[in-house]
Design a protein that fits this description.
Chain A has 78 residues and is mostly helical. Chain A is built from 2 helices and no strands. Chain B is globular. Classes of the chains: A mainly alpha (78), B mainly alpha (273). Chains A and B meet through helix 2 of A and helix 3, helix 7 and helix 8 of B.
Chain lengths: 78, 273
Amino acid sequence: MSSMVTLSEVTGSLGSIGSGLAAIGPGIGVGIIFGQGVQAIARQPEAYGVIRQNMILGFALTEALALIGFVAPFVFGK
Amino acid sequence: MSGSALLAAESGCHLNSGCGFPAPDATIFNYDAIFTFDIAGLTFHISKPMVMLWVAALVVVVFFVLAFRKAAIVPRGIQNIGEYGYLFVRDGIARDTIGAKGDPFVPMLFSFFFFVWVLNFMSIVPFVQFPVTSRFAIPLAFAVLVYLLWVPLGVKRQGAGSFFKAMTMPPDVPKAMYVLLIPIEILSNFIVRPFTHSVRLFANMFAGHMLIVTFSVATWYLLSPSVIGILGSAASFTVTVGLTAFEMLIQALQAYVFTLLAAVYINDAVNAH
């Protein structure tokens, strides 16, 4: 390992960058979920209860990825 | 109190006084023990989150005992609030998710919802201002409790064979795909599930508290006799107030999501697909 040469290095607030990258996918996902959810409620207002519940469930499952991305720098970073 | 950032802020570190912004870090979540005691050679450290955990339990119990102590057919006063909360969990979470078989689980889901909500709400109570669920051990304990409920329950209600088959082998899939699907399903349903269930609550509260603390520290840090300092300080303060309102929404939503997911997992156990 001592003979290893560092050719390039990235320094700075890498945790922030990682958190930002981790938020891209869930950001798109949450947008789709609420967009489709509102559309579904507009088409069928009487199914509001069921749609809202499933919307929030989908939101929670998608959001977990962004949150793991947010927590990871605190866990693995120094 | 702990946290070098807050100490730096308290000691009068302002915009033009030559010190950088004392950004809060994860140490603001650590509290020293208020008192310690020994039982059977083990030392117990009782810190602020522990005390708040007891206070929250007491608040929930006292509130609902008061609400239902003199239950009348026509509810009056506080009983209205209690019944509204009960019906919200029973009809909105238990019956919508689990169906008719969900009623025996309503007391547990009800307790989870209001206990988690009060723990989250501690975040914006003046002088408390710490969401207890942002200590990972607490949501993890709740999630493990739910896990230890639904897995044995599924084995008991459906039988071990059909329960694990339902959980790991989705129907109407080409046979060859099971080589790929079964490990993924085991991973997502039995290993990652309690982890994400607890991390979702923990990370939301952690992030929310971190945001409020960052902008509170910024308000104090930017407060200095200059135009940019006063404008920045006022802007930070406005953001802090806005975030507090936003956090109230998130707290209720996360308590709801936690309970809803517990109900979804119980549904996997009691209703065969």
